[in-house]
């Protein structure tokens, strides 16, 4: 039932190595906030400096505060040391708070910018993108993956830099305190890097796989929730629950592999780091006993060693988070790098001034295959001229290419051969908004947004007044049923219009198209969901709306196309018959057979 995609089911092998380089792709989102980063860096330096000053204060207290036979001077030294410690703690508190506020702001701001950029990029993609990408996967990228990036930008980068400063500063002070012990501890600590690097690679691969499994589960859930009436009507609730449960368990299993690898990494790092420190401190204790070090020196050395060890442990933790976020960054950058095959021209052409009612539309030897089915021609060498103000009906069996025509008129796809012109201008030379603003469409699958009736109709023209919305609703025979809703035009219609009948949803869509008032109107089975009475009302409204504009109608029910100026009969992506209703019936071809079947059935029914 669900479509799988390469991006969600197979980890990108390129992500297995050097994935931290993916963070370079975040630079365009970080550059606008350079000043904030500078402020955070200043606060970071002060906080790290204050932390590194604490061991030195303790050394002074031990060596000068507890020196034998110093008397009153010892008390003064202790008092001065603790006053200095309080001052250092105050600096540390202010700097840490400033750092936390600044980097948290950066994390939230940059994440919001990324979410906006990804969503804004996705909504400009052509339908070809959505043939191979599930909306649930995109939502997972916008939510889950950006949250990981937020953690890195808003916390991990700051923590990493802070611990890097503490590591370097602590290392320098270790050598100042005791070069001999520091050389020993440094040599042993180098060995810690090897397991961190080895296990870090595995954690990175597992992190990417874990996020992919979560995206799979999210995509599956989104698909099923959008099809809930179908699922329930076929009593597949338990089957779909089991399918989702299996997907969730797969994500859990992958996550546990990642957690086990990270746990092992943490354990090894702690054992090696603290084992090294304990060994060196044992050497230091013997140096104090021998008189080659003071007690203050050893205390200072212990605190600096603890700072260095703690910073290494924190860096290994941050590395794990960074690797997860690097995988998330790669997926978001992949999404942002997708280019729609439907692009605005570099220098868009302008439509000529309209001299007639309606738009002139022409297809010139058009051949088209859907990207997902390149071997099958949906349209083959199709030519068609539609005059301004003309009403043309397109009929034919399912799969004949009728809806494909509308997809091409709106430039959701470009034909592989031939051209389509609007008022004599190739639509590929028009700005997409200029083209689509000239076209109104009533689709077969009506879309109702989670808003009230007024806003759903106003979607046709964002700046329309309430009076214009109501006028369009009256033309579409929607006014009466809207007025009967609990809050009238302010009534919330429910997600996907669940509070309306099929016919009511279709009349909302018709009102939306009429409000737009375009020169070219496309009607795709616009009355298919209406009962006989509503169809009569809407048909008369549509006939009034067709006056003064070009209209192309797709219909299976031939009663709705009998009064068209011209009827085009399609089969297998080609035009096989053209004429009026009476001439095509007299021809005795495909249209005549369709008409005989439908009107005979109507006669028998009545």
UniProtKB/TrEMBL annotation:
Gene3D superfamilies of this UniProt entry?
A: ABC transporter type 1, transmembrane domain, P-loop containing nucleotide triphosphate hydrolases
Q: Name one GO biological process term.
A: oligopeptide export from mitochondrion
For this UniProt record, give its keywords in alphabetical order, as a comma-separated list: ATP-binding, Cell membrane, Membrane, Nucleotide-binding, Transmembrane, Transmembrane helix
**Annotated Pfam families:** ABC_membrane (PF00664), ABC_tran (PF00005)
**This protein's name:** ATP-binding cassette domain-containing protein
Q: Which GO terms describe its molecular function?
A: ABC-type oligopeptide transporter activity; ATP binding; ATP hydrolysis activity
Q: Which residues form a coiled coil?
A: none
Protein's UniProt keywords contain Cell membrane: yes
Describe the location of the ABC transmembrane type-1 domain by residue ranges: 38-324
Could you give one GO CC term from the UniProt record? plasma membrane
ABC transporter domain segment(s):
361-597
Looking up InterPro entries in the UniProt record yields: AAA+_ATPase, ABC1_TM_dom, ABC1_TM_sf, ABC_MsbA_ATP-bd, ABC_transporter-like_ATP-bd, ABC_transporter-like_CS, P-loop_NTPase, Type_1_exporter
Q: Where in the cell is it found?
A: Cell membrane
Record field: transmembrane? 37-58, 82-101, 151-175, 181-200, 264-289
- Topology of the protein relative to the lipid bilayer: Multi-pass membrane protein
């Amino acid at each position: 039932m669900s479509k799988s995609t390469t991006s969600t089911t197979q980890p990108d092998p390129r992500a297995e190595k050097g994935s931290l380089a993916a963070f370079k792709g975040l630079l365009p989102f970080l550059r606008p906030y350079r000043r904030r980063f500078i402020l955070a860096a200043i606060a970071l330096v002060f906080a790290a400096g204050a932390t590194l000053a604490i061991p030195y204060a303790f050394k002074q207290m031990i060596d000068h505060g507890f020196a034998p036979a110093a008397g009153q001077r010892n008390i003064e030294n202790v008092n001065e040391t603790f006053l200095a410690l309080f001052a250092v703690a105050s600096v540390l508190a202010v700097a840490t708070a400033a750092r936390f506020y600044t980097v948290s702001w950066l994390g939230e701001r940059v994440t919001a910018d990324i979410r906006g950029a990804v969503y804004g990029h996705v909504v400009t993609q052509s339908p070809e993108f959505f043939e191979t990408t599930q909306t649930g996967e995109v939502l997972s990228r916008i939510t889950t993956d950006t949250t990981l990036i937020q953690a890195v930008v808003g916390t991990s980068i700051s923590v990493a830099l802070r611990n890097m400063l503490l590591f370097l500063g602590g290392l320098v002070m270790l050598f100042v305190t005791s070069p001999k012990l520091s050389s020993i501890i440094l040599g042993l600590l180098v060995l810690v890097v090897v397991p961190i690097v080895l296990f870090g690679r595995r954690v990175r691969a597992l992190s990417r796989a874990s996020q992919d499994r979560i995206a799979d589960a999210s995509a599956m859930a989104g698909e099923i929730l959008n099809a809930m009436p179908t699922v329930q009507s076929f009593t597949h609730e338990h089957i779909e629950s089991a399918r989702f449960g299996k997907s969730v368990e797969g994500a859990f299993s992958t996550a546990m592999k990642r957690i086990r690898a990270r746990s092992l990494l943490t354990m090894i790092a702690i054992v090696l780091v603290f084992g090294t420190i304990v060994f060196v401190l044992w050497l230091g204790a013997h140096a104090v006993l021998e008189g080659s070090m003071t007690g203050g020196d050893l205390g200072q050395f212990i605190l600096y060693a603890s700072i260095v060890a703690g910073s290494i442990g924190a860096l290994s933790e941050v590395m794990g988070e960074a690797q997860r976020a690097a995988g998330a960054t790669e997926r978001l950058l992949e999404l942002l790098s997708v280019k729609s095959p439907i692009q605005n021209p570099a220098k868009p052409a302008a439509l000529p001034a309209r001299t007639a009612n309606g738009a002139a539309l022409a297809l010139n030897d058009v051949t088209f295959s859907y990207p997902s089915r390149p071997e099958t021609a949906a349209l083959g060498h199709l030519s068609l001229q539609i005059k301004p103000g003309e009403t043309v009906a397109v009929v034919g069996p399912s799969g004949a290419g009728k809806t494909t025509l509308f997809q091409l008129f709106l430039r959701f796809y470009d034909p592989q051969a031939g051209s389509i012109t609007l008022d004599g201008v190739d639509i590929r030379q028009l700005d997409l908004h200029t083209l689509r603003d000239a076209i109104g469409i009533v689709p077969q699958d009506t879309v109702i947004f989670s808003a009230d009736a007024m806003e759903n109709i106003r979607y046709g023209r964002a700046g329309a007044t309430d009076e214009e919305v109501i006028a369009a609703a009256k033309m579409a025979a929607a006014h009466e049923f809207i007025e009967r809703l609990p809050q009238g035009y302010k009534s919330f219609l429910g997600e996907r219009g669940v509070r309306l009948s099929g016919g009511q949803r279709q009349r909302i869509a018709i009102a939306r198209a009429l409000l737009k008032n375009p020169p070219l109107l496309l009607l795709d089975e616009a009355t298919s969901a209406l009962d006989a009475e509503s169809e009569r009302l809407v048909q008369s409204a549509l006939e009034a709306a067709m006056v003064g504009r070009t209209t192309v109608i797709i219909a299976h029910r031939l009663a709705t196309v009998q009064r068209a100026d011209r009827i085009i009969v399609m089969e297998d992506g080609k035009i096989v018959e053209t004429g009026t209703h009476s001439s095509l019936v007299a021809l005795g071809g495909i249209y005549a057979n369709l008409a005989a079947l439908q009107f005979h059935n109507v006669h028998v029914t009545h």
